[in-house]
Design goal:
The protein is mainly α. It has 18 helices and three strands. It is globular and about 80 Å long.
Length: 428
Amino acid sequence: MVYRFGSHIPLPGVDINEVNRFITDQENANSGILGLLNSFTGGSFKRASVFALGIMPYISASIVVQLMGMAVPYIQKLQKEGESGRNKVNQITRWLTIGICLVQAPAYLTLVTSQILPYDPASSYAIYVIPPTNFWFWFPSTVILITGTIFAMWMGEKITDKGIGNGISILIMVGILADLPKAIFNAFEVDPSNGIFFLIEMLGLILVIAMCIMIVAAVRKVPVQYVRRAQTSSSSYMRSVTDSVRSYIPLKVNAAGVMPIIFAQAIMFLPGTLANYFLDDTSSVKQFFAKMADPFTWEYNLIFGLLIIIFTYFYTAITIPVNQMAEDLKRNGGIIPGIRPGKETANFLDEILSKITLPGAILLTLLAVLPAIVKLLGVEQSLAMFFGGTSMLIMVGVILDTVQQINTYLLNHRYDGLMTSGRTSRDI
């Protein structure tokens, strides 16, 4: 509630009533990378609110630190030091978040005053009470944008500590969900008389959610057998008893999550963004890059899909340490039936991972390009964005994780109640 309330508090010198009137009339900043950032912040991005940067600088810092953990020995050492190491890594991530905000806050103010909410003294929209060319607009706004991100990061960490689920992910999900009711209303408002098509849209949305659940939850179970030794003694002999416990390693079909889509989107939008600043409007190169930045063109989706498949393999390879898994199995007395411990186990896990990554990458690509497909079929653009892509995967992933943690909490609560009171689960 606090996060959604903050998304409607404007920066100093900005008239929120004029902002809302301008957005309603112009309906700008609804496509490309601006539309993506706006959906992640729940509309804060185009309203010039105190939470305009949202939680994304923290997510960017977390990704950078995660990638550094594969190349920087100091970060690798911290990641292996348990709770104290994780606390130090979190502290590094927080400071890096502030550093990213110091770059993004002035860049955002430049963007918002030139494109999203352009400043024009002769315009009928009196958006800026304080002219954005004034120092007393830039300096307080920069400080407040950075403070807004740090406050959102603090809220996310508090939700993680005192609530259920990952607080940062929940804040992102809340921002994305904020636009869903409006998108559904707009889709119905386009042609209220065509109720059958609207029902087909809702059914299609449910099927897409089911597909997302399948992609997020699908695993390939690799059987593992752990050997346990125990000694029994009697007055006449002592002998060794060997027992075995069966388990499995769950290898996710989509181990990379939404990261391939995020990386691919960043690459797709970057040339068009640079072309906007450095090329003339009549340039054919700029027109080409503008088409490549439109998520509803076939050229964009073709290259976008190829990039997702490439990044899925790349991110899976660097985040799933098969050699480390093989060593941990060997150290703990675990073996995969029919496979020798050590190098052969690592090769076996790598082979399975390669085989299941391909269908996972294809399904992820299909989900990413689905909004463009359904828009061609007549679905309204704002609702089409919920038919797949990063937004839907994040929502489904966060909700599944939260439901799982709630079930774990309830199970532990019932177990503790049974142990302390002797009552059955039905009584509880």
